């Protein structure tokens, strides 16, 4: 993290090709040009923290290709990237493969990506290759039970045909929303100069409005850095908001001091459970924080564990004794300890493999029906969103650009960014189709002090579907 991009790429040329000085620098620039990084000469002076996740992955590919390999091993190269950046990296790998004639071993748990880039597939289980063959043969006629199970569990994106849309908004007219967000703004100061004076502000969230009805799932989708997680954290009071109000039923709170019946399930189940505490202590934490511990607390712990599919004996165990899917179930149980009306799920299934992911999604749907929970489901995986959402809000550069009924938004997207998101979704139905390579940059969210965006103008496309008017 402390070395410039140029220094790190040049190292390969110096060690393996004997280049020095300007030769190595010129070769490093050519390597960045090769992976379609715009303004390559200037980027050589950047440190990693100055580049986005997608740009960093392009730099990693440039480093791997520096020595003109005959074989490139790509180990989950897009797992941490959002769907649009993922599509760009896949397009880049496919194009470089054609240009250089190199072979590639592509390691992934995402079957949709496999369909887009592979010629042959090998399926592994427990350290053994259980099935291998041509792409179409494996995807259309899997023979091994594990391969069949994997393909069955894959969320298939059906362009809005598989959503949970049920006309709930019409039924709920006159009902108090479980959560209402009005005019949410979150800005972070940008400081510069010797005295660290504020010279601008990052407009992370800029005027977000939405409501969420009891028993409803609103999915917030968008690429990394769009403001999805910042919105969720502001609602929970984990990030200080600049202005805006939240309300849950009859309870209302200013954005600066959120105290609503809302709980959160985080993305990484390995990082969100304290490894030093027993499961009993972890589940008791939110209750202790509110000072409401009583004789019924342990009974509730046992009941919730049973409800999320874990035995009561789990209370005496520790997080390291559980798998990723089980840990996420524990996180869900902890979130329900205080009987919240709203649960925020921030990329809650993105770290899980497809079969575990499917079971956790089924659990979330069952819990929603049983307890009448409202979910704010934050994700960049459109196939998962289609499976669980009643409504969808698309967020881009800190602003909601389209919101409405899930079926309507996915089947008839109106905003250009929504169309781009949907076009980038990997699916096993698209065999070896490559996304068009795009090197344009996401607009900067840094604005000068005092800058205020123009009021949003909206086009209506039915009773529950609207999109922001584009400039």
CATH architecture identity of the largest domain: 3-Layer(aba) Sandwich
Query: What name is given to the CATH topology of the largest domain?
Result: Rossmann fold
> Number of helical runs?
17
Residues in helix, %: 25-40%
Major sheet attributes = 8 strands, mixed
Rg over CA atoms, rounded to whole Å, is 24 Å
Q: Any idea of the CATH class of the largest domain?
A: Alpha Beta
* Helix/strand class: alpha/beta
First and last CA, distance: 38 Å
Estimate what percentage of residues fall within beta strands: 15-25%
Give the beta-strand count: 17
Instruction: Please give the domain count.
Output: 2
Description:
It is a single chain. The chain is of the alpha/beta class. The chain folds into two domains: 5-153, Rossmann fold, CATH 3.40.50; 168-261 and 340-468, 3-Layer(aba) Sandwich (Rossmann fold), CATH 3.40.50.300. The chain has 17 helices and 17 strands. Strands 10-11-12-7-13-14-17-16 form an eight-stranded mixed β-sheet, sandwiched between helices. The chain has a five-stranded antiparallel β-sheet with strand order 9-8-5-6-15. A hairpin with a 2-residue loop joins β8 and β9. The longest helix has 18 residues, at 83-100. The radius of gyration is 24 Å and the shape is globular. It starts with a helix and ends with a strand. 41% of the residues are buried. The mean pLDDT is 86.
């Amino acid at each position: 993290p402390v070395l410039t991009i140029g220094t790190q790429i040049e190292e390969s040329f110096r060690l393996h090709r004997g280049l020095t000085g300007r030769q190595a620098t010129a070769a490093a620039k050519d390597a960045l040009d090769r992976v379609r990084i715009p303004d390559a000469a200037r980027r050589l002076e950047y440190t990693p923290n100055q580049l986005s996740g997608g740009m960093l992955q392009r730099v990693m590919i440039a480093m791997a290709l520096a020595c003109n390999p005959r074989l490139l091993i790509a180990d989950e190269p897009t797992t941490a990237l959002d769907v649009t950046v993922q599509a760009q990296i896949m397009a880049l790998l496919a194009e470089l493969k054609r240009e250089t004639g190199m072979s590639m071993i592509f390691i992934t748990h995402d079957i949709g990506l496999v369909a887009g880039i592979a010629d042959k597939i090998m399926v592994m289980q427990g350290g053994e290759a259980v099935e291998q063959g041509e792409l179409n043969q494996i995807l259309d006629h899997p023979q091994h039970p594990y391969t069949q199970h994997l393909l069955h569990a894959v969320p298939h994106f059906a362009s809005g045909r598989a959503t949970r849309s049920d006309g709930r908004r019409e039924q709920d007219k006159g009902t108090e929303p479980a959560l209402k967000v009005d005019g949410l703004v979150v800005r972070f100061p940008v400081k510069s100069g010797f005295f660290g004076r504020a010279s601008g502000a990052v407009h992370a969230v800029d005027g977000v409005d939405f409501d969420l009805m009891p028993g409803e799932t609103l999915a917030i989708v968008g690429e990394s850095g769009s403001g999805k997680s910042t919105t969720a954290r502001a609602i929970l009071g984990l990030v200080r908001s600049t202005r805006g109000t939240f309300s849950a039923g009859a309870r209302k709170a200013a954005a600066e001091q959120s105290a609503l019946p809302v709980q959160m399930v985080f993305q990484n189940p390995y990082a969100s459970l304290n490894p030093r505490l027993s499961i009993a202590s972890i589940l008791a934490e939110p209750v202790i924080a509110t000072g409401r511990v009583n004789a019924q607390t342990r009974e509730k712990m046992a009941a919730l564990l049973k409800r999320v599919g874990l035995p009561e004996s789990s209370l005496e165990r520790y997080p390291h004794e559980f798998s990723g899917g089980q840990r996420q179930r524990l996180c869900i149980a902890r979130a329900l300890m205080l009987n919240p009306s709203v649960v925020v799920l921030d990329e809650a299934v993105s770290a899980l493999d497809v079969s575990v992911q499917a079971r956790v999604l089924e659990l979330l749907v069952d819990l929603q029906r049983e307890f009448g929970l409202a979910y704010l489901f934050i994700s960049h995986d459109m196939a998962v969103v289609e499976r669980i959402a009643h409504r969808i809000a698309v967020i881009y550069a800190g602003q909601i650009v389209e919101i409405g009924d899930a079926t309507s938004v996915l089947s008839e997207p109106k905003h250009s960014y929504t169309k781009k998101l949907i076009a980038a979704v990997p699916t096993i139905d698209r065999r070896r189709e490559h996304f068009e390579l795009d090197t344009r940059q996401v607009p900067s969210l840094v604005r000068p002090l005092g800058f205020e965006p123009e009021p949003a103008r909206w086009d209506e496309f039915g009773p529950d579907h609207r999109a922001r008017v584009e400039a």
